[in-house]
Structure formats: C-alpha cells, structure tokens
Write a structure and sequence with these properties.
Layout: H1 21-24, E1 41-42, E2 47-48, H2 58-67, H3 72-93, H4 101-108
Antiparallel strand pairs: 1-2
The structure holds zinc ion.
C-alpha cells in the first residue's frame, strides 16, 4: 500500500503521525476507492461485481477494514455516504421489499463501527 496515495480512502499518516494535507480533503460522498476491484458494488442493485453477494461482500469488508486499520472513523464516514446512496437506489427500485432502514444501516455501516476492533 502506498501511504502517500492521495484521497484513496485509506488512513495513511506521515512519520510524525500527522495526516498529510492532501489526505485531509474529504472524499466525495459515497466515493469508493479503485482498489476494491473487482469487489465493487453494481449500482443501483448494490450487489458485488466480483462475487455477486450483497455489497459490501465479505471480501470488500476485509479490504475496507484492512485499508482503514489506522483510521476506522474515516471508514465509518465513507460508508455512511455509501449507505445514503444505496438507500436511495434500493428504495427507489423496490420500496416494498427492500430491508428496513436499520437493516440496511447494519449491512452498509454498522459492521465497521470504529468503537469495536
Ligand atoms: Zn465480492
């Protein structure tokens, strides 16, 4: 992993433990990093392009968790934006059979809760 890669959704810090200025810039809401390939969501269905499981699949969760090991709050914020996009897409496509909001939140965000390691 390249800790200096700008705006990649990772948690890289410099040798003094500071977040480099280019990393302070927030990613666009819900923007997912390219290193998730091929385990990226197929929108608007939100299934994994790599394995077909509901996204985030197990591999995507492992990749996201590993990449954000030093900055779990950043992962939580990233996934909160993704959750908003997914909720909009899924409820627009199928407002009656899409899981309730708390279940969608658990699927997209809560598994990454930064308070638990
Ligand atoms: Zn997958």
């Amino acid at each position: 992993m390249d800790a200096a890669e700008p705006n990649d959704g990772g948690g890289g810090r410099d040798a003094a433990g500071r977040v480099p200025p280019d990393r302070c810039r927030p990613a666009a809401v819900g923007e997912l990093p390219a290193w998730l390939e091929p385990h990226r969501p197929l929108k608007p269905l939100w299934v994994c392009a790599g394995c077909g499981d509901p996204w985030p699949c197990a591999v995507a969760r492992l990749l996201l968790r590993a990449r954000h090991e030093t900055d779990r709050v950043r992962l939580y914020v990233l996934l909160t934006g993704v959750f908003a996009q997914a909720a909009r897409d899924l409820y627009t496509l199928n407002p009656y059979d899409t899981p309730r909001p708390h279940a969608l939140f658990a699927r997209f965000v809560d598994w990454s809760d930064p308070r638990f390691r």
